[in-house]
């Protein structure tokens, strides 16, 4: 089959999906499919040693077309709207002017409207439509507080419901995300596929940890690596850290950046640079090595966020042999997974006192945590291994191909 992947981010952009997509593309090519990528040409990658990619690029048996759009920054609402319009028009133009595709696949970013544009292109061209939902919009926008207008929310929900109802396959990261989509009143119809992220190959070159990232001797480090934003509910973690301010062996280390960083620094100023530390976002190689030296990998989600997203950092921590500390509802699939497999600790969101007690429990088991870490690494490769996940993507396309043949 001829497959077009429409995505705003593709390698060398440094989002997790951008790094995984080339592996998915190559697997489909090995399966006998012809694959083309339509992405955006923008200065998004934080890896400054990469030049701006060209508008058309041949990458070992597949082509990447990149649409020039305006660089985006936080709170630039008009720029984002303009980019959505530019990219949507180019999607329709590309599909109508190039050879006929059998399958159009897109992601859920930009929210809702990317799905709408690719759905429209698939309908006009007669192609199958595959909708990969990394997050569930507009529900995640309402939880984050940036979609507050009820009419706007209802309008976006109506569009995305149509996206899902007209998709030949819907890919989500968790059972909880699937349940959220089916709760809209739509039938499963065998279209849902739970395919999570996977463990990427280790960097070919080793690296040294920057001095500010090295863990001091005798410290029990709880590491948070990732975006410090509105969905993480990290205020609970800082509140627990303040409750543990006299436990000077326990340190909280935040590696990353985001809108809420200054707010958390202010909240924890009493213990800042004593048992609470922040450092800027690091390269993938440095982040992975920092995970290997930590004692616990921290995952934290605001209430109900588990229903609309899955924290990819879970896979990163486990793959590096770190037991996890998850601040998430006990009924969530993530919580049940951690407890069933015995690879970490779980505490409910919004309860600093409970989190403090869980941290002390883990601290008292400090000597046995490496054993949990070994189990975590084995579980990660068994559950989120690249080969297993790529096989699931192959099976998805086999199913789509079977449907196409029966039409």
Q: Can you walk me through this structure?
A:
The chain is an alpha/beta fold. The chain has helices at 16-30, 77-97, 113-125, 139-144, 150-165, 175-182, 235-243, 261-267, 284-293, 313-319, 333-341, 352-364, 369-384, 386-406, and strands spanning 2-6, 34-41, 56-58, 63-68, 103-107, 128-132, 169-172, 192-194, 220-225, 250-255, 276-279, 296-300, 324-327, 344-347. Helix 1 crosses helix 14 (386-406), helix 2 (77-97) runs parallel beside helix 3 (113-125) and helix 7 (235-243) packs across helix 12. The protein starts with a strand and ends with a helix. Mean pLDDT is 92; it is low at 43-48.
Radius of gyration: 22 Å
Element-level helix/strand string: EHEEEHEHEHHEHEEHEHEHEHEHEHHH
Query: Which blocks of ≥5 consecutive residues have pLDDT under 50?
Result: 43-48
Count the E strands. Answer: 14
Number of helices: 14
The proportion of strand residues reads: 15-25%
When the domains are counted, the total is 2
Question: What portion of residues is helical?
Answer: 40-55%
Measured distance between first and last alpha carbons:
14 Å
Strand order of the largest sheet: 3-4-2-1-5-6-7-8
Oligomer: single chain
